[in-house]
Design brief:
261 residues; mainly alpha; flat; three-stranded antiparallel beta sheet
Length: 261
């Protein structure tokens, strides 16, 4: 198994109708993006972490560990949002003056950055719920039932496979180089890295060409056809979607001061 497939095949929700899980994910993402609220986003993260653990059997540590990768890139990108340029020191928490302008962060920019990170992580948690509970083949079947373009789905599935083909090839070459002291010293490390980059694409290209030839030999006509299994009813997913939507809207109204709390 590759990527997150090892978690999705171990999930207790893998036999549940994937369309219902996609609807739950899509609804939560729309509200996370639309409401732009910190409380809504935090509740969404906690909700999907709990649902993945209680219903799907995915360990909380696994879910949080997978959340760390996008969080790192978000924090790096949010630095440019938090730090701004100000004409004077009013409201500036930390900053330094360069010429006529003050560069630093204020309470407003800090909250803006926190809101951005929370909203993005809420969407990531929503996507992880579906990804960690639905194998890629079931996702493709659900997308076909939604009448998404066939070319788009075929490219999505092939790209997903070949990403991990590249990773596996690079890992094997790196292991072989490390066993021969290929990374002993800065100069040798650069030489080994250049050789790794060149070899990984050559080997991956040859392997992908062989895979495509084998697909054509089995009657491939541009569509990867798989048989749809019998799924369990996704009724509880729709109920969860309704409950999550209600709580998200309530938190949004409370956060904006429309409903007193």
């Amino acid at each position: 198994m590759i990527g997150t497939d090892k978690y999705s095949y171990q999930s207790r929700l893998k036999t549940v109708d994937p369309t219902a899980k996609i609807v739950l994910t899509a609804a939560s993402m729309v509200l996370c993006l639309g409401t732009n609220g910190i409380a809504v986003s935090i509740f969404t993260i906690v909700f999907f972490c709990a649902v993945s653990a209680l219903w799907g059997g995915t360990a909380v540590n696994t879910f949080l560990r997978l959340m760390r990768a996008p969080l790192f890139f978000l924090l790096v990108g949010t630095v440019t949002v938090i730090f701004s340029r100000f004409p004077n020191w009013d409201g500036v928490l930390i900053g330094m003056q360069i010429g006529d302008w003050i560069y630093g962060l204020s309470i407003a920019s800090l909250f803006r950055g926190v809101r951005l990170v929370a909203r993005a992580m809420g969407c990531v948690a929503s996507v992880y719920f579906t990804v960690l509970s639905t194998p890629i083949t079931d996702l493709m079947l659900a997308f076909r039932r939604m009448h998404l373009p066939q070319l788009f789905l075929s490219l999505m599935e092939l790209i997903y496979r070949f990403i991990f083909l590249l990773y596996e090839t690079a890992q094997r070459i790196h292991t072989a180089q490390a066993s021969r002291l290929g990374y002993n010293g800065l100069k040798r490390s650069y030489e080994s890295l250049g050789m790794l980059i060149s070899m990984v694409f050559m080997k991956a290209y040859r392997k992908s060409d062989k895979i495509y030839t084998s697909l054509e030999a089995r009657g491939y006509t541009g569509e990867l056809c798989t048989l749809a299994p019998l799924y369990e009813s996704g009724r509880r997913m729709y109920w969860a979607c309704a409950g999550l939507t209600a709580v998200q809207l309530a938190l949004f109204l409370i956060e904006r001061g429309v409903v007193p709390f």
